[in-house]
TrEMBL record:
It comes from the Bacteria. It holds the Pfam family CurL-like_PKS_C. Keywords: Phosphopantetheine, Phosphoprotein, Transferase. GO terms for molecular function: fatty acid synthase activity. It comes from Hyella patelloides LEGE 07179. This is Beta-ketoacyl synthase. InterPro entries: Ac_transferase_dom_sf, Ketoacyl_synth_C, Ketoacyl_synth_N, PKS_Beta-ketoAc_synthase_dom, PKS_NRPS_Biosynth_Enz, Thiolase-like.
Amino acid sequence: MESLAASDNLSPTKKALLALKQMRDKIDTLEKAKHEPIAIIGIGCRFPGADNPEEFWQLLSQGGNAITKVPEVHWDLKQYCSDAVNTPGKICTAYGGFVPHLKEFDAAFFRIAPREAISLDPQQRLLLEVSWEALENAAIPAEELKGTATGVFIGICGTDYWHQLLNRNPNQIDAYLTTGNTHSLASGRLSHFYGLTAPSISLDTACSSSLVAVHLAIKSLRDRESNLAIVGGVNRLIAPQVSINFSQAKMLSPDGLCKTFDTSANGFVRSEGCGIVILKRLDDAIADRDNIQAVLLGSAVNQDGRTSSITTPNSLSQQAVIKQALKNSKIKPSQVSYVESHGTGTSLGDLIEIEALSSVFAYNEQLILGAVKTNIGHLESASGIASSIKTVLSLQKSTIPANLHLKQPHNQIDWQKSPFILPKNNLSWEKKEQPRIAGVSAFGLSGTNAHVIISEAPDMEDSHTVIRPDSNLFSLSARNKPALQQLVTNYTEYLEKNPHLNLEDICLTVNIGRSHFNHRLALTASSTLELQSKLRQFINQKTPTEFWQGKVNLNSEPKVTVINSPEVQKPLLDLAASMLINPVADLDVAKICWEINDQSSLQSNENQTVIFTKINHELDDWQLLTSGLAQLYILGVAINWQTVAKNFGGNRITLPTYPFQRQTYWWD
């Protein structure tokens, strides 16, 4: 229909109809935005027993229990633990869930001075590392985010390190105490490091913190405040005082087991870790050909209000938040086949949660209830994101892992009349005609409840090239030589475990999905097997063919002019030139280096690097192209990786992330 501006010749009735139509379109657009699905395109995690999503799935699928005795680096068991419950000043359990490197951190990688790093809360350290890993998992180079509307939403509530620093001699308090430990800086530091301009929020709603962070991120993306979001939660157990408090409140399980929904449930076990997801509006993720790992359909948050005590859950509020999340997702309860429960393993809490779930899903034929806390304990402010990541992995693997420590389902629940299934073994969760949909709950000690609805990822069209090049370019880089060597080892081992991976996918992911540092390696390969073989040769200190390495000055990109041979086909030459960020023209004809003769170069009068080249007649056109680009990359020439990707094809996939080179930074 015509616009109002062009409707002068219309009758009053037609003008009114036109205005009504345009108003209806606006309302439909606003209504659609309220329910817009959000894609999860990247995941990073550091959980007990798992340093990344792959290890986390291995732990879950194998029925692993990651709970251990408290490491000495955290606190002294002999001094603070007692078998006698309610002993003043003591913890009733010697167990917990822990992640390594409490005192270690790669401060140089994140451009943090050693003195400042000492005052930096290990929770902020984890957030920096895991957010970087999540971005690499999404194949997003960090530098591409600078100045973008990327939001940061982080759940955090621990203050152990801050209290340790405050309890020192006042003369030891330095200028970095506040910036290193204030919760607002947990999200703010990520925004500062990556140069992000959208909302940056740290929040504390206790156990529901990270799932509330997901809820806020969904709203920010739907409202167009953010175009991308870094979302998650973190928790570190550094000092014994909070555990003593929880013991006195009879919250903790003396035997260190979360026995969710079991008759013997007697409390939870405290754990630490960090989980981060990268979120983007689904339509944008599809258009950008991101690796969509799952879809957030909707979410809701509410409060318990007045109950018998400030920490007592409210079944009606739990029912309401799940119903509101379903409404926000435009989903019926019957469409949900799995719920990852809050499931702390407290007798009262489990009963109240089952009561709420029974009310919402009473007419489901069956509903499987998961409980990740039985594997890794209660991560408190990071527990909701841990539950979400487990759910995403379960969708990807078409398997629901077993709940642990389930011997006798809670005897105050009539399980026979309920739709609930408690998985004692791994259950198949195969794709069907309709998308598989799950719910995730997190209920905070503060009374703040959150629920998120997650669906499987949509099927994506294959983006591999119709005619695959005979050769592809593979690049790796790191901030220092040890990190590069470790990266090569990690990739070699990963490819040996995953020989089915497509070479185009591998090369596209490392080329466009990673930051490019000064210590570099590049090679050409025609198959995944050849790539794997060349990396293995490098590890064994052999020099493969068509393989280059070097160190570049990132502050001074060379300007390259090439004396090329007329034997090179001009169409291919022009294509190669399009793959450089700043190609230098000679007589208005773009030039490119195909093969550097003896790695020699001269400086021209225009302060440009002149590279003498020759043609290797044993290489075909595509091999010439990849060989030339590889050598230019090693010289520090900026490559237009997006153009390279368009010509070589491939999809973003999961590959190893950066190997941080940690050193000890601690206050004592």
